Amino acid sequence: MPSYYPLYVNLRGRRCIVIGGGSVSERKVRGLLDSGADMVTVIAPAASPGLAELAAKGSIQLLSREYQEEDLTGAFLVFAATDRREINEAVSRAGTRLGLLVNVADNADEGGFITPSVIRRGELLLSITTGGASPSLTALIRQELAEHYGHDYGQRVELLRLLRQKVLSNEFHHKNKQELLRKAAQEISALKLDNENVRDHEFIDQWMIRLTTGGSNNGV
After folding, report:
1. Where do the coiled-coil regions begin and end (predicted)?
2. d(CA 110, CA 66)
């Protein structure tokens, strides 16, 4: 069995090709779009209603025809996600020959990369995989993490980002800035929030003062 190197990739401006127009392809496409991909092309004789809607909105390019090897020219990532084994295998072989990263939906070991199960909370991204050994365990771990890191974590991570910007600025002086940031990360789960906290610079300033003086986080 292959081992995998975990890697997060910036897909903006990079061509991503999805071969196939069914539900599996649609999941792959939506995952790409959620990741910021802006050059997604789907190639399939027929496409799901969801893919057709994305194409109508201009979110993806949809080529309603059979796959051709020339379609891989200039691709950064390739997804072979048809319901025909021979086509997926042909895409994998061609992509490997061209030095491309290919994900093969019906045979993960045949491709060059796999896509993990993902939880997104704003800028917080958690990914889980068992490398295909147990999708059930992957689903259980994902559920546990989703419950622990609720939707409010997007706001909490945004606060940490804004705080970090201020702490690391030349205007802020502290003998141990990294220790201050670690302290903020340790208490972020218990920080009391409301809808106005994020980008509220007064809130950030009060938080910084409390962190430097060792005060309570009640009400902040």
Report:
1. 174-201
2. 21
Residue pLDDT, tens place only, 129-139: 998 889 999 99
Percent of the chain with pLDDT over 90: 73
In a domain, 137, yes or no: yes
Does one domain contain both 9 and 64? yes
pLDDT of residue 39: 98
**Residue 129 belongs to a domain:** yes
129 half-sphere exposure, CB direction, 13 A CA radius: 15
How high is the mean pLDDT of the chain?
A: 91
Whole-structure pTM value: 0.84
Is residue 206 classed as helix, strand or coil in its secondary structure?
helix
Whether residue 78 contacts residue 67, with contact meaning beta carbons closer than 8 Å, is answered with: no
Sign for the pseudo-dihedral over CA of 137, 28, 33, 16: positive
The boundaries of the domain holding residue 191 are: 153-213
Q: Residue 104: which H helix or E strand, with range?
A: strand 101-104
Q: Which of 99, 125, 150 is the last residue of a domain?
A: 150
Q: How confident is the model at residue 64 (pLDDT cuts 50, 70, 90)?
A: very high
